[in-house]
Amino acid sequence: MAETVTLPKHLLEDLIKHLDGVSSVLSTLEELLDEEGLKRIREGLKDYEEKNYVVAKDVEELRRTLFES
Questions:
Q1: pLDDT digits over 31-48, tens only?
Q2: 42 in a domain, yes or no?
Q3: Do the domain assignments include residue 48?
Q4: What is the rounded distance in angstroms from the CA atom of residue 13 to the CA atom of residue 19?
C-alpha cells in the first residue's frame, strides 16, 4: 500500500536549506572533536597569520601551484 504526502515547494526548499546548515554544523563539530583535524586547523591559521599562502588568479595558476610544486 503506497502512501503519499504533499508538501508546498517553499516548505521543501526551506527544509533542504536548513538540513544543509545542520550538516555543516555537524561537519565542523566532527572536525573540532578530531585531534588531527584540530591540529590541521591550527596549522592553517598559523600559515594564514604568517601569510604563508598563495593566491591563485585563475584555475590554471591554481593547478600549477598544486601539482607542480
A1: 889 999 889 989 999 999
A2: yes
A3: yes
A4: 10
Q: Please check whether residue 2 lies inside any domain of the structure.
A: no
The range of the structural domain enclosing residue 55 comes to 9-67
What pTM does this model have?
0.50
Cβ contact 31:38 at 8 Å: yes
Concatenating the DSSP letter of every residue in the chain gives --------HHHHHHHHHHHHHHHHHHHHHHHHHSHHHHHHHHHHHHHHHTT-----SSHHHHHHHHH--
Residue 57 lies in a domain: yes
pLDDT tens readout for residues 14-35: 999 999 999 999 998 998 899 9
- Is pLDDT of 69 > 70? no
Domain count, the chain: 1
